Amino acid sequence: MFSGKLHGIHAPHRKNTVDRVPVRLPVPPVITVPMSMNIGAPAKPVVKPGDEVKVGQMIAEAGGFMSAPIYSGVSGKVKRLDEIVSANGRFDTVVVIETDGQQTVWEGVKPPVVTDKDSFVEAVRQCGCVGLGGAGFPTSVKLNVDPDRVHAIIINGAECEPYITSDTRTMIDSADDVIYGAQLLQKYYTADRIVIGIEDNKPQCVKIMQEAGKGVPGFEVASLPALYPQGGEKVLIYNTTGEIVPEGKLPIDVGAIVINCTTLAVIAKYIKTGMPLVEKVVTVDGSAIANPQNVIVPVGTPIQNVLDFAGLKCEPKKVLYGGPMMGTSVPSLEAPVMKNTNAILAFDAKDAEDPVPSSCIRCGRCVAHCPFNLMPAAIESAYNNKEPEKLKALKVNLCMECGCCSFSCPARRPLVQVNKLAKAMLNQYNAEQKAAAEKKAAKEKEKEAV
Amino acid sequence: MNNMIVSVNPHIYAKDTTQTIMRDVLIALFPAVIASIVFFGVRALLVEVVCVAVAMACEWAFEKITNRPITVMDLSAAVTGLLLALNLPASIPIWQAMFGSFVAIVVVKQFFGGIGQNFANPAITARVIMLVAFSGAMTNWTVPAFTDATSTATPLAILSSEGAAGTLPTLAQMFLGARGGSMGETSCLALLIGGLYLICRRVITWHTPAAFLGTVLVLTALLGQQPLYQVMAGGLFIGAFFMATDYTTSPPTPAGKLIFGVGCGLITVLIRVWGNYPEGVSFSILLMNILNPYICEWTKTKPFGGVQA
């Protein structure tokens, strides 16, 4: 069994915007709201061109169990439904809304009635919440578990990515909401412990949460070493409870629910006021940004508007959703801010440049820094030699793509990229193996029948 | 549409590159270079310059001829050249030193695919080949400065069963480097400074040198030798800190490094005590290089949360 400390990297912090109280972006003339902002099924539009919408009004319903509804963050008129290529390369439907600048709140916005666990989960579902740390997992699905199985509720306040301070601002500006959310979870799940994990490079957050959480039974603040990736789900669970989530299992299988602090604050706000998830605090930073800051942005706002607001020093050569370790680079500045966007980073030509890989020198840094003890260099050679059985043995499927291996590689090997490709290779191989086994079984059955 | 760069995460990198790592090794070897000049004169510097230059030239020429990317600027050839030089006697004929550099870079490194692909340490292998090919010149030790020794025999040769004539240097002389031997291996102090520098810079970890030195210390004590003397004698310090820690030819995991170091120590002592050669550091590292793939296989990491099917 595994014991000891998980590895990681000392990434630069660059939390330049920690003291920047979020300011509201002037209402953009047009927003484009994508339907795929969560893991699982995309939402289904319930508006058509010409419809008037107001702030907090539903524009798309959940497209299935593993999905979440979407609400408008602006008042205005639906111009058209369109199709775009999103940053992950897939086609996605967008609802394009022309704003009227009035920001009229929809009449239907009122606090939900929450009396028990089921109505709480339903409220979370109605709120449109998805994992705001970046994963975009529908929160209601995560919370739809038997309360008896929950021993620890772990609030993710690690915010281990460089640059990003939006969770930090949540803890500073909305500590009461976070605590209210924690109390709700405690009420409906009666966990033994409610732990909020915060990296120790944010001592002010540790202090604020300790103050705010006084008197909440079972509540504690865990100060975590600022060793990226503390905010990784399995890393956070291990470092706060000592439990290891086994391969193929979920946090709830070790009695844990992990929820991001901003997600929790959004749920709390919805239950207090009835205003669903329609806007996000986004950290705008990077070497191309003139005035790094935190901005409150309606979901669907084109990145261009946000960058113009913060000011550009130069033409951005690379723009990211999220942090520099796990963020996705966007192909166009028309790409919208999504529910799970916690930062927009814009980099100049120098920082945007892709490094040139050279030969692996077998230094072992990728192994020494992998939080999950994987062997990225060995995975790379197994992938290049097209050996799926080896990939299976090397457990490439466990990789969370945190980026520690590529970050620390002195030869600048594209290890994360290869891990992604290797996972796809392994999945395909497993599917083929399964199909072949089924075919064989069917044939044998046929033989028996004859 | 402006032409923005779209790439896979991560988008930032640590400062270390192959070049900075190799530069750190060169910096770490600097005290040993100084010591070699102090004890064995300017000829030592000449051999060092020749070995480095020939190593880099051979790498460049081979890559040019075989139409591969030129990797001279990653400085790994310079490290190999310098390590080889430090493992030679200062009196070595220049053409032999040049031959050694050629063997290290072309035969041992490039023929196997270049950096990261060779199975044995180029400098060590070249030295062993030279020891066999030019055994006279390779054991023709120069009298070190600051000693009143009349014999140039190495302490290990004096201690060995054949018992070469000569008086043993004191422990202090051993530590500082005033004794017979290869020009870069004699000053334990200089090598220790360099080794600690590499550990502080996280270029190497403590595992291999500690296991290597520790094993020699304990085993020689058990066999009734003089353990402190044995640890400081011969090429043990330069081997433990600079040669056995070579990335390409030693295991990446801490457990693997410990096994590798213990193995090196064991073979060194066996050769020193019962072998035909007075010194066994080079042979021990070379043998462990050959076993390295097996050690890597035995010491694979256990994935966090991994379930064996």
What portion of the residues of chain A fall into strands of 2 or more residues? 15-25%
Could you give the order of strands across the largest sheet of chain A?
A: 1-14-13-17-15-16
Characterize the largest beta sheet of chain A: strand count, sense, and whether it forms a barrel.
Answer: 6 strands, mixed
Overall CATH architecture of chain B: Orthogonal Bundle
What does this structure look like?
The complex is a heterodimer of chains A (450) and B (309). With 450 residues, chain A is α/β, with parallel strands linked by helices. Helix content of chain A is 32%, strand content 19%. Chain A contains 14 helices and 17 strands. Chain A has helices at residues 117-127, 139-143, 166-173, 175-189, 203-212, 233-241, 261-273, 303-310, 349-352, 365-369, 376-384, 388-393, 404-408, 415-449; strands at residues 23-24, 30-34, 44-45, 52-53, 58-61, 70-71, 76-85, 91-99, 152-157, 193-199, 219-224, 256-260, 279-285, 293-298, 318-321, 328-329, 343-347. Chain A has a six-stranded mixed sheet with strand order 1-14-13-17-15-16, sandwiched between helices. In chain A, strands 2-8-7-4 form a four-stranded antiparallel sheet, with no helix packed on it. In chain A, α4 crosses α7 (261-273) and α11 (376-384) crosses α14. Chain B is mainly α. Chain B has one domain (18-298): Orthogonal Bundle (Ammonium transporter fold), CATH 1.10.3430. The termini of chain B are far apart. The mean pLDDT of chain B is 92. In chain B, α3 (76-86) crosses α4 (94-109). Chain B has 14 helices and no strands. At the A-B interface, β15, β16, α10, α13 and α14 of A face α1 of B.
List the helices and strands and how they pair.
The complex is a heterodimer of chains A (450) and B (309).
Chain A: E1 23-24, E2 30-34, E3 44-45, E4 52-53, E5 58-61, E6 70-71, E7 76-85, E8 91-99, H1 117-127, H2 139-143, E9 152-157, H3 166-173, H4 175-189, E10 193-199, H5 203-212, E11 219-224, H6 233-241, E12 256-260, H7 261-273, E13 279-285, E14 293-298, H8 303-310, E15 318-321, E16 328-329, E17 343-347, H9 349-352, H10 365-369, H11 376-384, H12 388-393, H13 404-408, H14 415-449
Parallel strand pairs in A: 1-14, 9-10, 9-12, 10-11, 13-17
Antiparallel strand pairs in A: 2-8, 3-5, 4-7, 5-6, 7-8, 13-14, 15-16, 15-17
Helix pairs in contact in A: 4-7, 11-14
Chain B: H1 18-40, H2 42-65, H3 76-86, H4 94-109, H5 122-133, H6 135-138, H7 155-159, H8 171-176, H9 188-200, H10 207-222, H11 227-232, H12 236-243, H13 254-274, H14 281-298
Helix pairs in contact in B: 1-2, 1-3, 1-9, 2-3, 2-4, 3-4, 3-5, 4-5, 5-14, 9-12, 10-12, 10-13, 13-14
